[in-house]
Structures are given as structure tokens and as C-alpha cells.
Design goal:
This protein has about 475 residues and is an alpha+beta fold. The protein is built from 14 helices and 18 strands. It is elongated, with a radius of gyration of 25 Å. The N and C termini lie far apart (about 75 Å).
Length: about 475
Amino acid sequence: MAGTNEGKLPGKAEWAGRRRPMTRKAGFSARAAVELQNVHVDGYRLAKGQVLDLVFHLPTVSKGQRLGFGGWFTGPRSISVEIDGAPEPFVLQQAESPNWGKFGGQWLSDGSRPDEVRVRFRAGVASSVAIWDVLGGRVDHEYLHEARAALLKNMWQFAPEGNFYDPSAQARIAIADSDLRRESDAAAIWLKSCNRCGRFLPVNVDDERFHLSFSNHCVAAHRRPCRHSGFGRIVNITDDTVVELDYGFQLECRFCKKFEVNAAHNPQRTAAQMKEDGARRRAIELLLEHLYEGTPQLRYRQRTGRELADDVWQRFEGRCFKCGTALATPRDMHLDHTRPLALLWPIDGTATALCATHNSEKRDRPPVEFYTPDELKRLSKIVGIPLKELQDPSPNRDAVEQLGDRLDWFLDQFLTKEELTKTRDGKRAADLLVKALQKALERLPGGAPYDLERLWKARQRKR
């Protein structure tokens, strides 16, 4: 993947697509074996201050059609990366070699063509950079026409792995500087196959938590190392060995997971299940209000004289921490607990600003099971929670201790409140709360200090 004369890429004036055609109906119905392969990639040797400038000349498309660009790259952190000319937001995730990062975007065209999109790699010190599978052009796939409108929001987050380029409308891609020195076998990249679409897409094996094309499989500490065949133990077809991973990867790439798995499963959640989730959440919030004597927002306002949401929005500079999407006002922000409510952490000044997509994706996961190690370090500095605590997936020990000290009150008074004893869709909020609390207690080191479900059932029998 290195340059030759006249600013052209090896052997070609334009890069032809090697993967991700417009449609692959046969591939999307397949259930192929999951495999890994390790590929050596050429690169460029850059002197201090030298620039590798990738120029995407995008085709003209009609209003409402999709355009995109993207690729993967690796190099030291001393190489700065900038993207010019692409509509925001876009993906730019940089990793430290030997791990790979990625860049890309996808957007609906307004009918006018950007003159060009440039991705610029500038060396802070003499170093090498390698790039893989850099493509661009019109993006098209049957799912992008057939899917529910709600699923098509924020498709830029799935670049470059979700950019299926139409072979008849690809970008012409060139390197602005023809004097760059080519370097053979500058890096190696791991590719994993998706069992749905059959594509081999990049993953990081050295730092599995730095996601590229697949999400992790076994994230919780008690489930690692992942030993599931195809997830954490995958055949490397390069040399027929078995690669054993710590976290492992999902069978499906992120694109297939979104449209083939999640899209099919999410509508199956009934209204009753949605209500059950809401009732459980409200019950935990009510319990924490009683344990800490007031709502988090009220306590924060009394202590600081300011609104919690306003302060969090300003602290994160009006952007989603996970993806950098601009959040125009605090109302556009989803105020995340950072450490989840399901683990008895009330929301407070350590909250995180997220967009709707990433708040939904994080759900009830502790930060160590959602963010990369680099993201955890940055988050620690912003919210003021020590890194060691962000890396701990345990529940709020203070809340657990308070609950243990007030068990009689909890069982005899709190759980018998009218709002917790009403039966809705065959479920009582009190029962849902006890079950949720028991799950949280079991995540303590050494296990639950008491069996809340057993105690609750015993109290009910006495009544």
C-alpha cells in the first residue's frame, strides 16, 4: 500500500474495490466458519514533518444518495491525523502501533459534490505509517433501502466497515506527494471473518478492547478469558494455528450485528418488557433517593447552585465522549451515570455526556466493559473518578453497606410502599427491584454478602 510515481497508488491510477460490493445477498444468508488471517502490509517511511496526504476525489451523486470514504491505518502516536473536506461527524480513531486505528465517514448527499476529502498523516518524528483497504465512493446496500428509518441514524459510526461501495461510482484516490519513500512489510494486520457476510475485516489482537469491525464477546472479568470456539478461540488460516483471545469477538461484524441481529431482536421486545425495564429503573432510583436523602439533581443544585446537566455538558465541551458528536444544547445530551444505576451508582457530578446512540449502546455496563483503556484514562481526568475505580466493575459499596445496615427498613417498609406493590402486567416493582439488587450484590468480590431474594420471600411468607 505504498506510493509510486506521479502520486499514484501501486500499479493503479485509481484504487479498485477489493471488498464490500454493493450487494452480497448470498453472503448475508451464510453462516460461515469464523477464521483469522494475518496479512503483511506495505507502508511509507516519513521524515520528521513529512506528510502522507490521501486525496479522495468523490463521484457526483444525486441528492439523497449516500457517499462515504474510509480505511485503516497504523503508526506511532507521534503521527498526527487530520481529515479535511468531509461532512461532520466522521470516524477518526487512532491507536498505537502494532494496533490499528480507522477513519471514515458516511453521509446523505445534498446533490453537490465535495471537491475532495483529504486524510493527512504528519510525522512528528521520523516514523512509518501503513494503510489498509482505503476506499471511497457511493455507498449502497439493500439494508440501507429496506431498514426502518430509526436504524439508519448515525450510519457514519459504521464507517469504514459499513461502507458498501457501488463499483460503478467509486472515488479516485491519490497521494498528493509522489516523493514518499515506500517501505515493504511495514506492519501486519489481523483480519477476522464475519459469519454472516463472509468478509474478512480488521481487528486488534494486541489490544482487543480497541474495537475496529467487531465488538467484544466476553467483557465481564468473570467470563474471561473467552474460551468459546469462534469467539475467543479462532483458527488462524495463515498457519493453521489457534489464536486464543482474552475478550474474544462477536461472530458478526458491527454492520451485520446491527441489521441482521439487533434489528430482528429489538422489535420482539414487548410493551410489557419495556414497562418492566422502566419500573425496575424507577425503583432503583427511588431506593437511592431514600438512602442518600434526595434526588441527585436536587443535591447537586443545593451543593453548587448550578444545574447538573449544564455543568456536565460544559465539561465535555458539548460533545459525546464516545464519538465526539456535537450536542447543540444540554437537552440534546444523554446524561450517563458513568458507573451504572444497575450497580447502585446514583447520577452526580461525575456523569458523562453521551449521544443517544452510545447511551443506548452502553446500557447498564460499567465503564471498563464499554470504553477502551485509552478512553478510560481520558474519562478519569474529565470526571474526576480515579482510573482504578473506573476499572472496577463492582457495585457501589457504600450503597450496599447502607442497604445492609437498613435491611429491616428495606424489607418491611420500603418494599411495601404502594408504588412498589401494585401489580402491572403480572409483575410487581418490589419483586423486580429485589431481583435486580441481588444481581448487583453478586458482582461484589467474594459474592453477595446476603441473599436478598431469600430474605424477601421469607418476609412474604410471614405476612
